[in-house]
Automatic annotation (TrEMBL), chains A, B:
It comes from Thermostaphylospora chromogena. PROSITE patterns: STAS. InterPro entries: Bact_StressResp_Reg, STAS_dom, STAS_dom_sf. It comes from the Bacteria. This is RsbT antagonist protein RsbS. The lineage of its organism: Bacteria, Bacillati, Actinomycetota, Actinomycetes, Streptosporangiales.
Length: 122, 122
């Protein structure tokens, strides 16, 4: 049994580290938890780290896209960071994308992307 | 099969989010990965988030203490954050501690603790 994927707060950014190969229900639960957390903490952005994810199928890809669409509606863009090269190759081969989720190489660059987006809105 | 617990970098701090109930070999692998990462990135601190951990036995407790001792020798103190109340109760009942690891309520406070430690050394 997998526990819920934890949502960490760092200032007004939420950080999620997806580990192993998440099951469908884990990602569904994450969507709920993240929408609650964005509103509760007034988050201005979400970073989803997938460093440890080796397989992303079309369901997980669609769910990440759905999460990104949802957080954007809540004014908190999602950045997916840490994609393994093999995952990128598979996604490109399958023609999958994360919809409205942007991607950045790593956590540092994801944070910079969110800071830049915030500054641009001032 | 569990993959290795990922080590994220945020500036010069390493962040590890332990999920589920880690097996002994996962924590052993984490110790190696963290020592490598501290040196490679010149990290000034390590934050281990245990928000999603519901059970900490004496082995895991000792390993967290060993990790904290190791990172301190490398001049990068470890802060354990996100402990569930039930975990704290169990640790207190068993008389366990994390040795040299400090604890903070959450990621924000853990980061503040590391910043404070750095400023104090200037």
């Amino acid at each position: 049994m997998m526990d819920r994927i934890p949502v960490l707060e760092l200032g007004d950014v939420l950080i999620v580290s997806i580990q192993g190969d998440p099951q469908d229900q884990d990602v569904l639960a994450l969507r709920e938890d993240l929408s609650d957390a964005v509103v509760r903490h007034g988050a201005r952005g979400v970073i989803i780290d997938i460093t440890a994810v080796e397989i992303i199928d079309s369901f997980i890809g669609r769910m990440l896209a759905a999460i990104a669409d949802m957080t954007r509606l809540l004014d908190a863009p999602t950045v997916v960071v840490g994609m393994q090269p093999a995952v990128a190759i598979t996604l490109a081969e399958l023609g999958l994308s994360f919809g409205g989720a942007r991607t950045a190489l790593n956590l540092d660059r994801g944070m910079a992307m969110l800071n830049h987006a915030r500054d641009a809105r001032k």
